[in-house]
């Protein structure tokens, strides 16, 4: 792996147009569970499967049960950025990293200092009334009980993309533009199993596609450099 990391460092040192595309594996090293690994949420037992609870239909039909799960399993407000988050923020300050495109909803990239963060699936930090659109802080949601209600009486919804909901078109278009024009595209901490987000890498036109993930992905054969290791462990050596 030393030779692979040396190659990645060489590429990074010579580039000022890096785009990072990340998934749940970027946050697991900060103590936030993912969904699909052996220890992930999909492999734990609940009254309903997580993918059912985190759907638009379930949210509308069973909001009480949705928020019980959401507060217990989806909010990790004490989590701190790890080496991967910090390195990406450092690269942005150095003028190397143009954008972070993430499937995560925890806000850790911003907490580490990254500014150009495109959140494909939204963020738990933003919440709004479905009736009047009044914004609410995540701490209001975390501290409450039952279904959070606005002063106008409307239900407050986290600004996250639930199953059955569409991704934000502006975020998608900006992500495509950054990826298409990137010199280096680093994909980290994702199995590339969630669509349509995973299909964004098809827009990359460069010759330095890097995959950093603990396990193999469907895109490994297309990559110019593959490192099978935890993303934080790799980035701490760059």
From TrEMBL:
Residue numbers binding NAD(+): 24, 28, 35-36, 103, 105-106, 121, 190-191, 213, 231
Active site: 121 (proton acceptor)
Assigned GO CC terms: cytoplasm
Intracellular or extracellular location(s): Cytoplasm
EC number: 2.3.1.286
Cross-referenced InterPro entries: DHS-like_NAD/FAD-binding_dom (IPR029035), NAD-dep_sirtuin_deacylases (IPR050134), Sirtuin (IPR003000), Sirtuin_cat_small_dom_sf (IPR026591), Sirtuin_class_U (IPR028628), Ssirtuin_cat_dom (IPR026590)
Catalytic activity: N(6)-acetyl-L-lysyl-[protein] + NAD(+) + H2O = 2''-O-acetyl-ADP-D-ribose + nicotinamide + L-lysyl-[protein]
Family: Belongs to the sirtuin family. Class U subfamily.
Name of the featured protein: NAD-dependent protein deacetylase
Organism: Agathobaculum faecis
